[in-house]
Design goal:
By secondary structure, the chain is mainly beta. Helix content is 0%, strand content 63%. A four-stranded mixed sheet has the order 5-2-1-7, with no helix packed on it. A three-stranded antiparallel sheet has the order 4-3-6, with no helix packed on it. A hairpin with a 5-residue loop joins strand 1 and strand 2. It is globular and about 40 Å long. The relative contact order is 0.37.
Length: 86
């Protein structure tokens, strides 16, 4: 299984951060479902934001979270048995 994530962060005027991008997976049947761990990087800290449900080959990501986030990643602690490209 291969996951590719292309995600950008945008600081909003109210101090929040918009997270927008796409998660793409390959190497599994169309009916395959995954729960993908999602992490925020704030300076030297890494915080798990939650999980993304991956039920299709391409999953859009569009969310607003409170606070400033430098970047977001998936699978930081190798939670998934997958090859991940970010």
């Amino acid at each position: 299984m291969l996951f590719r994530s292309r995600v950008a962060t945008e600081a909003l005027p109210d101090g929040k951060t918009r997270i927008k991008g796409q998660l793409t997976r390959s190497g599994v049947p169309e009916t395959w479902k995954d729960v993908v761990p999602f992490y925020a990087h704030i300076g030297d800290k890494v915080i798990r934001l939650g999980s993304l449900a991956a039920t299709h080959q391409n999953e859009p990501i569009d969310a607003v979270v409170g606070g400033k986030i430098d970047r977001v990643t998936i699978n930081d602690h190798e939670d998934l048995l997958a090859d991940v490209h970010q």
